[in-house]
Design goal:
By secondary structure, the protein is an all-alpha fold. 74% of the residues lie in helices and 0% in strands. It has two domains: 16-58, Orthogonal Bundle (Arc Repressor Mutant, subunit A); 67-200. It has helices at 16-34, 41-45, 52-58, 62-86, 91-102, 108-120, 124-148, 154-177, 181-186, 188-200. One of its GO terms (molecular function) is DNA binding.
Length: 201
């Protein structure tokens, strides 16, 4: 016998921002439980108080929702890093320490990020989105380092930072998706030495 889920609408009036936040929170919960590829719009709608029509007013598909979450998380991280790097006189050392240490971290945002990286292998929209996000990280890091080290050539530094973040993401994938965490932890010193060599060469 087929059982239908009947949703009882609540009439508490929410702002656009509150509805968007509700959708993103619900989507993140479902993505982390089922993975991006196995999540459909019905899964997310059923985690919210919105009607189907109200839900589709904001997002047309799961990719749109994922990108909205990704941009929000990335912008928050960039703002945090900007403050952290700016408050430290040894900017290069701070960047290197942050990257080397954060490779091992496991948190919700990282799992969401790795889902998207996997999709980027098959979907050019994901590849383009991740490219734009990496540009934001590169811009932030270059500008802060140049402010503290104005003698460094900006274009050469940009190339190094771009390469550094590309390496970093490969290390994150290997460490978190290929059971390589222990060997990375044992050799963390060499990671830091590698990152410093790239930046100071």
């Amino acid at each position: 016998m087929r059982t239908e889920v009947i949703k009882i609408e609540t009439y508490t009036r929410k702002s656009r921002e509150e509805r968007l936040e509700e959708i993103k929170q619900a989507a993140q919960k479902v993505f982390l439980r089922k993975g991006f590829k196995d999540t459909n719009m019905e899964d997310i709608i059923n985690e919210t108080t919105l009607s189907k029509g109200g839900f589709y007013y904001y997002f047309k598909n799961t990719k749109e929702i994922y990108f909205a979450i990704l941009e929000e998380k990335s912008d928050n991280t960039i703002a945090y890093l900007g403050q952290m790097f700016a408050d430290n006189q040894d900017t290069i050392g701070e960047v290197v320490d942050y990257l080397a240490e954060s490779i091992f971290e496991d948190f919700a945002e990282r799992r969401l990020f790795l889902m998207g990286l996997y999709e980027s292998y098959y979907d050019n929209d994901f590849m383009e989105k991740f490219g734009l996000i990496q540009e934001k990280y590169v811009d932030l890091t270059v500008n802060i380092i140049i402010e503290k080290h104005p003698d460094m050539g900006k274009e050469k530094l940009r190339e190094k930072i771009n390469f550094l973040y590309t390496l970093y993401h490969n290390f994150v994938i290997n460490c978190n998706m290929m059971a390589g965490k222990n060997i990375y932890k044992r050799n963390k010193k060499y990671l830091k030495d590698l990152f410093i060599d790239i930046l100071r060469d």
